[in-house]
Amino acid sequence: MNNNQKKQWFKEAVVYQVYPKSFQDTNGDGMGDLRGVISRLDYLKELGIDVIWLNPCYKNSGVDGGYDISDYRAIAPELGTMADFDELLKEAHKRSIRIVMDLVVNHTSTEHAWFLESRSSKDNPKRDFYIWRKPYEGGVPNGERSVFSGPAWEYDETTGEYYLHMFAREQADLNWENEEVRREVYDMMHWWFKKGIDGFRMDVIDMIGKPPEMLLCDGGPHRPSSCGPREHEFLREMNREVLSHYDIMTVGETGSVTVESALDYANLDGSELSMVFQFEHVEHDAGVDTKWSTGPMNLVKLKKIFERWETGLHGRAWNSLYWSNHDQPRAVSHFGCDREPYRALSAKMVGACLHMMEGTPYIYQGEELGMTNYPFTEVSESKDVEVHNGWQELVVECKRFTPEEMMACIRYKGRDNARTPMQWTAGRNAGFSEAEPWMPVHPNHAYINAESQINDPDSVFSFYKRLIQLRKTHPVIVHGDFTLLAKEDEQVFAYTRSYEGKTLLVACNFSCEDAKLEEAAQTCGEMLIGNYKEPGEKDMLRPWEVRVTLV
Ligand code: GLC
Ligand code: CA
User: Fold this and answer.
1) 446-453: long-range contacts at Cβ-Cβ below 8 A with a sequence spacing of 24 or more?
2) Is residue 416 flagged as an active site residue?
3) pTM of the full predicted structure?
4) Has 33 been annotated as catalytic?
């Protein structure tokens, strides 16, 4: 076993994602800040998590929720100071909570000093830090599309060329083929590790190795933009040069990853990353050619996706487990039922269904309270560049959706659902801020809030707390292999996990009706956790019921 294989605390860990802007405001400007995160560390300790993944808190240009960084070594003034960050790190470590930062190195803001130099002239030493192309027949070099709608090429008058931006036009893609770019990134990573951070979540990291075809100046069509020939070479270099020097964890955001490529990205030999985020389960109900859709979710399809990932990676690579994050709708609204009387029941069920699988679970802030999607009625209520660009393209330009249809998609899939303020109390602004919050507070904070749940043994919060404790108590939850039961059942998601003579049985009802259980999925052994008080029938699950047993 090499050094990397020993460093595997991340397998036993539970990660909690904090979107700092929406977590807790402490200086009364309506926006969450780093001191707010410090003030809630005891809450997170009570929940029992091991690691915080902090969304970007670097200086940025305010276009894409902090993913448009203008200085990698400075804290965004709206979130605090470097002294606040240092204190957060110290206070978290005091409580044995690790801090993982976001690493956004596929692109920088167009306000970053490198880009300002790069755009200034064709012979500037930083010209090649970004991807510049000549016009093709007087227009864009080719038909490459931005993830946020529209062309991925932006014309820059100073030098009469186009630069590539796979996201907003204010986010210019770095040129990873340039060794000096890689050197700068690695130096910056060392700088943060030397401060004592415990890892990185790597933003769209499968896009750094660009397939050369997508960059041709040939007027060609939109071509795949991820996982080019040097992708794994770059990550292995980063691992050798930086990651392998520290006892840290990494998770790559890889929208294009397959079970097969995950065996490289997340191999247990530790040669690249600790794990990656795959997207198949959260996108299983996406529209045909864009993310926008209104569902419905398809349980049989969903189960097959998990089965492939669980069995495909077992013993060879490591899975991450998530239902939600700052780019996804709320877990209970997407996969459970956020209407009463099922909200809390189904929030617990989806939590247990995920946390009992093999992989490192991620909890997105508010998920542990069963927070729900927000009832958006007007596109103007949205702060998200993806929503506004999508509206422009799909409603205004190509009239693919009527405004009503697109609003329904936004309510179902829009990223702002996850970005409304954390609901701490039933009081004014949900205890998030003294001032008018930068995003509206969900009216349901009157009954969905942390204060009312922390001491209630039946709350979603207490249930999540128990899920985390179970992981620390039963090695089968960390290490067991996975077998899917009742594969074609449209209501029931049931599976077993086995390890060293123990078998965990997890049976979940993803519907508002009773569900019959096939014999293999029927409860036997010790009940570890469930979401109904009264014991039910052995061969039947009640609406949104989950039962986890151990023999
Ligand atoms: C990732 C982030 C998302 C951001 C995008 C561009 O997908 O999670 O929030 O908009 O990258 O950086
Ligand atoms: Ca603030």
Assistant:
1) 448/343, 448/369, 448/370, 448/371, 448/372, 448/423, 449/369, 449/423, 449/424, 449/425, 450/43, 450/369, 450/422, 450/423, 450/424, 450/425, 451/424, 451/425, 451/426, 452/426, 453/369
2) no
3) 0.97
4) no
